[in-house]
Amino acid sequence: MADIPALRKKALALPMKPGVYLMRDAGGTIIYVGKAKLLRNRVTSYFRGAHNLKTEAMIAKIADFSVIIASSEFEALVLENSLIKHHEPKYNILLKDDKGYPFVRIDLRREYPRFEIAAKRENDGAMYFGPFGGRGLTKNAVETICKTFGLPTCARKFPRDIGKERPCLNYHMGVCDAYCLPGKTEEEYRAALARAVMVLEGKTKELTDGLRGQMEAFAAALRFEEAAKVRDAVSAITALETQQHVWTKGTSDTDAVGFYRGTAKSCFTVLHYIGGKLLGKDAELLPDTLEEDGGAVSQLVRQFYGGQGCAPKSVLLPLDTGDAEELARYLTELSGSAVRVAVPQRGLLRDYISAAAENAKEEVRRATTAEERVTKTARWLAEALGLPEPPRRIEAFDISNTGSSEIVASMTVFEHGKPLKRDYRKFRIKSVTIENDYASMREAVGRRFARFAAGDAKFSPLPDLLLIDGGAAHASAAREAMEENGGRVPVFGMVKDDRHRTRALVTPDGCEIGIDAFPAAFAFIGSIQEETHRFAIEFHRARRSKALRASALDGIPGVGAARKEKLLRQFGSVKAISAAGEDELSKVVPKDAAKAVYEHFHSESGE
Fold it and tell me: How far apart are CA 386 and CA 380, in angstroms?
C-alpha cells in the first residue's frame, strides 16, 4: 500500500511551476505520467480526497514519484507526450496503434515493386506519398491508379508466378496488362509504374504532355489502335487529376474529434472532412481512463497526430481541454504549417462535432455488453455508497395506501442489474390502522428479516443493498426494523425531485449522495424505484377492488364468504350479479339465497 502521508508531504514541497510528474510502483516502474500547470497543486491532489475506482487503484500502487520542471506549459505538454509514448505506462490512456492519415509506400529497390499503404513515413529508403485522407480512401486511390496504368492488384508474386497460370479476370476486363504472362518484361512493368508514381507526385501535366506527343506520333504513323489506347490513358489520367484533391489533404481539411465515456468503455473518434464532405472516420475503443474528459481528449489528439507527423489545417475539439493554445502550437510544429484548434459553439462546425460525438457514442453502445454496463454501475454504486463490494442483489421497498384503507408494502428484487420477479414479495400491513408510512415500512422490513431469521427459504438470501422509497426518515425506520431482527445490510432511501424522478440516495442519518453525475446509475436507481412503486400500486389496487366487491355483497341473508366467491367467479363482477335475474342466480346458489340477492339489489335501485 502507498504511504499516503509521506507522499503528500513530498508533494507539498514541489514548486508552483509547470512540469511533468512520473508515478512509480515499488519496483521502480513508471505506471503513470501526467503534466501540470502547477506541479504542487496537481500532484498533491492525488493524495487527498476521494477519487474514482481506477485512480484509487493507481494511487494504491504508488511507492514514489519524480518530477521534471518545464519552462512552459507547452514544454510540459510536449514532454508528457514523449514520455507516455516511450514508457507506455499502465494507467495512461493509450491508442492501440498509430491511426490517422495513411501514406502510400513503394520500394523501387525490389523486383516488381507494389504500392502499399503505410501508417506513417519511415526512414527506410522507400518512397512515400501522402498523407492521404483516410485508409479506405487511400486504398481506393491506389486501386484506381493501378487499373489506369494496367498494374496488377492480385495476390500473385513476380517473378515467381510468371507463366504459372492463365491471366485473371482483371486482364479480361482490360484493367491489367497481365505481367504474369511470359511475354511481358520487368522494364515494361517499371515504365507503367513510373507513370503511376508521376500521378502520386502530382506531375500529371508533364505525364499527359508526353503521352499526347506519343498519341500524335502513333496517329501520324497510322497506328490508330495504339493512338486510341494512349488517348484513353490521357483521359484516365485527367480524371485522376480531378480526384486528387479528394485523396490528399488540402488546405481546407477539417477533423472533428469526438469523445464519449460510457459505463464500461470510452471511444475516441475522428471524422475527416475534405472540401466540406465527410470522407473518412477513425475510431478507437478504450478502457476507463484516469483523466477527465478534457485531459483524455488532449492526450489522444497528441497521440493520434503524433504518430502521423502531420495534422489537418483545422482540428475541432468537443470540449475545452484547457491547453488548446499549446495543442495548436504542437500540431503546427508537427505539420510544418499552421493548424487551428477550436471548440465550435454553433453553426456547421458544431454540427461536425455533434456527428463525431454521436459516432463515438454509437461505437461504445455496440461494443459494450449489458453485463459490462451492469458491472460498471455496480462498481460505481459501491464506491459512491462506501460498500465493501459491488452489490449483486438489491432489494427495494415501497408503501401504498389510500388513507388507512388496505395499507400494503411491496418488495422487489434486482440481481445482476435485472428484476428477479420470482423473488418479489407482497405484505399486507397488519399493525397499522391509520396512515403512517414510517410504521408501515418498519413492519414490512421487520417481517422480511424476521422470516429470514426463522429459516424461511422464500426470504433467502439476504440482499447486499436495501433501497427504501422515501427519505432519511423512511430509511431510518427500515434500518431499525432490520437491526431488531438481526440484519446488517446497508440501507439507503431513494429521494425524488419535484418531477417525481429519483435525484439522490440518502443515508438513514440524512447524508445525501447525488447520482445524476453517473447517468447509468441514475437510470438504474430510477428504474428500481419505478418498478417497486408499480408493484406496490398494483397490489394495493387489487386489494381495494376485492374489498369493494366483497362489501357490495355484505349483509345479504344466506350469502356468506363461500357463496360470495361462487357468485363473483360465475358472473365476474358485482355489476353483473346486480343485473342477473332470480333464475340465473339460482343456478349458482340456492333459491332462497338467489331471491335475497335479487331483492338486495333491486330494492336499493328502487325497483
Answer: 10
